Queue: 4 jobs
Job 1
Amino acid sequence: MEIKQSFFLALKSLATSKMRALLTMLGIIIGVAAVIVIISLGDGMQKLMSDSFEQLGANLIQVNVWSSGSSRDVKDKDMYALVEEYPQYLSAVSPSVTVSAVSARGTGDVFTPSSVVGVSEAYCDIRALTLDQGRFLQYVDVLRSQNVCVIGSYINKEYFDGQGLGKTLTLNGYNYTIVGVLSETAESRQGSGDDQVIIPYTNAQQLNSAAAENSSVYMGGMSMYMFSGTSKDTASAARGIIESALFKIYEDDDYYMVVTSAEMLDMMNTMMNTMMVVLVAIAGISLLVGGIGIMNIMLVSVSERTREIGIRKSLGAKRKDIRGQFIIEAGTTSAIGGIIGIVLGILLAKGAGVLIDGTMSSGSNAEFTAVISLTAIAVAFGVSVGVGILFGYLPANKAAKLNPIDALRYE
């Protein structure tokens, strides 16, 4: 029997019992759809991270330093000295001091910004920030600990009606003059990079000291510095210079961590890939269940069509013809289930991508979109067909080995 004829017979067999065929395909449909959704969302998350790190800059080097509780702790001047000593590798540095337990007041009610961070004047260039209004912090602001700040577009629109420049913002009871408004990066959403206040790091250190004295909320012990390398090619050498300088101070690498933006992206991608492998493996269980369902229904089909098999064998059909017909039928069932699963998976992935992008807050203007991979679709479809053929072989082989005389007598 020709493959084409066997294929049409398989379709006819499925059409005669649509509900049974759909239930048979259900495991394949769910498994393929789950694989498509997981891979699409995973690839979308990796693309979002890649876009976000690209905006941070390929030259960014982040340094975390933990206090040793002794006089040998690193000082801000030590970090600035590295930039002056190695201008061919390091172009700028900014301390980054996160302020804890912040309450703020604009022209309206008291609110809590998602981020209040103290930095130097170099932070704007290191992070490639752009301003919509006013100016960024200047050297004199940091040197004299002047009460000035730069706010995100969300705070400007939400609490100052878009007219925040020159107004006063109160942070933990201290008045700060708004000298700049950052350009919108995340659709001015709450909790995003547009919901932040930037002040001189010298002021941030004072606010944290006050918080430590007046409450138990503030937890000190770690300092952060943001370096900018001269180029992507020198980032590795710059990292080595910083690590060497810190080791000379502490004589122990447990007190600091130096990571480049490329390394941060690699670590995130490694974690994402590991998680995706686990999730895809879990989703693959549905394909296994679907294969068992196909094998079960094909065994039932062989029993129901035993007399038909006997007639065909008596008319000259060979074992390979009978085996081929049932294998093609099993493969067709799983292939149709795979196609339905692919369509369902694409729709679910697109819908989930829109939902996630609408609910998540990002510190950059990178958008989350589900990335539909043609490779993932091809692999998922191939696996679904393979599962159908694999689990359909046992029933097909059983049908091929039936004795024609016994099959004709079967009632």
Job 2
Amino acid sequence: ALTGLLYPLSFPPFNLGWLAWIMLIPFHVILSDLPSKRALWYGWLGGTIAFAGTVTWVITAMHQFGQVPKVVSTLLMFLLALYLGLYVGIYAWGYTKFYHQCPHLLCLGAPALWVALEFVRTYAFSGLPWALLGYSQYQWLPVIQFADMTGVYGVSFLVVMGNVALTSLLLWLCAN
């Protein structure tokens, strides 16, 4: 839930892009103690919270420009957040698989999974590339220079890799 609350703060209008580099740490710490099935549910919940905070524009767009009643617009926005949250749930499931079965690949596998899910989200069911994690870095020119060669997905990869590395360091420090 904490990661879900921090996620929207990385994007406009809050513009706290630096949070993206640490916001997955609480999520990863929790996931390290969960079985994969339970991680899927926790991830779905956290993802739904995260996307409920980033797709609020849907309410305004549907109500103001589509003449859809505000209550219906809000319900549809939450349904969209539930759908988008499922991608985070799948990431959580995969993260726990990597963590428990191949921890030596976690630093590359988890970011690759995140990026693969962002790519699918961008194109599946006509796509919704809204609030891709790499977009949160738009204010940080040195970071987004990487996007010249990799696109936004490369920036997302770097951000998730940073979160995984910091989580691994934190868990190692706590264990020693």
Job 3
Amino acid sequence: MIIGMTTRKIAISLPAEQVAAARQAVAEGRAASVSAYISDALARRDADEDLQEMLAEIYAQAGPPEDTDRAWARQVLGLDG
């Protein structure tokens, strides 16, 4: 949660599986509350969208990575094998 932000209470409908997952995260201490779990998920979605926009700009300027670039990155990150 962002410190100093104004919060609003809303009502939403979610599939039972998502509610169960949020409650389980709270029970396991991975989230302070169901609201915090959902807020964190929305923040991650915003960050993902920002990253997609940034990548689209990079690809527009420099083109997408080539297969050799991807292979190098996989090796450096230890994803091969």
Job 4
Amino acid sequence: MKKYRNYKDHLIEKLKDAEYASAYLNACLEESFETKNMGIFQLAVRDVVEAHGGMGKISSKMDVSRESFYRSLSQTGKARFATLVNAI
């Protein structure tokens, strides 16, 4: 039986490449504007943050608390566009 890779693990590994991450974010941002659903871009930012060290590492670079950054990127969070852009 063929062993399959977990999609999320594969995505996170691919997002470690800056060019791939940039293309992924651009595609998700475009989709977000077309569908008027910023949740798509919010999820993409979460994925890229995870690939590049996680909430703690990125929030410290942004000079915001990990807790507030995590809340803003959570599924129920309402992150401002500026917060999302500053994360990347």
